[in-house]
Specification:
alpha+beta; 6-stranded mixed sheet; 6 strands; about 20% helix; globular; 4-hydroxybenzoyl-CoA_TE
C-alpha cells in the first residue's frame, strides 16, 4: 500500500476498480456504493482479525452507526484502495475509520460496531486478545 501513497497507519487495504454498475446518472460513483465498499472491507477486517467467521457460535456484529465524508468524485475505471483500522474501543464496541484512496484520499468514513451474544440476548465483552491487537496492530486506544 505504501507504494500507492497510503500512510503507514493503515493495517488493511483492498484494491479494486470502479465498475460501470457503481456509477449514477452523473457518471460518478453513487454515494450508496461507497457504503457497500466499506462493508466489503469491514467484513474482511472482521474475519482477518478473528472477530467472526460468521458461524452460529460467533458473536453477532452490529453496525451501530456509519458516516462518510466525500472529498473528491470517483469515475469509471479508476483504481482505488479501501483502507480500514480500529481507532478506539470500549467494553463491547469499537470504532473503525476508513479511507478510500485513488492517487489521493477521496472518501473518509467512521463506523461504530457493537458485539452481541450469538443469540442476541445481550452485549458481549471484547476479548482481551482482540483489544491488544487493536492497540498493537491498529494503534487504537481505549475510550
Amino acid at each position: 500500500m505504501r507504494d500507492h501513497g497510503i500512510p503507514d497507519a493503515w493495517p488493511l487495504g483492498i484494491a479494486d476498480r470502479v465498475h460501470f454498475g457503481d456509477l449514477d446518472a452523473l457518471q460518478h460513483v453513487n454515494n450508496a456504493v461507497y457504503l457497500k465498499w466499506l462493508e466489503n472491507i469491514r467484513i474482511q477486517y472482521l474475519m482477518d482479525w478473528g472477530i467472526t467467521s460468521y458461524s452460529p457460535d460467533d458473536p453477532r456484529i452490529v453496525l451501530r452507526s456509519v458516516s462518510l465524508e466525500y472529498r473528491k468524485e470517483m469515475l469509471l475505471n479508476e483504481d482505488y484502495i479501501l483502507t480500514a483500522r480500529t481507532t478506539e474501543f470500549r467494553t463491547t464496541s469499537f470504532t473503525q475509520e476508513y479511507g478510500i484512496y485513488s492517487g489521493d484520499l477521496r472518501v473518509t468514513g467512521t463506523a461504530v460496531i457493537v458485539m452481541l451474544e450469538p443469540d442476541g440476548s445481550g452485549k458481549r465483552t471484547l476479548p482481551a486478545a482482540l483489544r491488544q491487537r487493536f492497540i498493537e496492530v491498529d494503534g487504537a486506544v481505549a475510550a
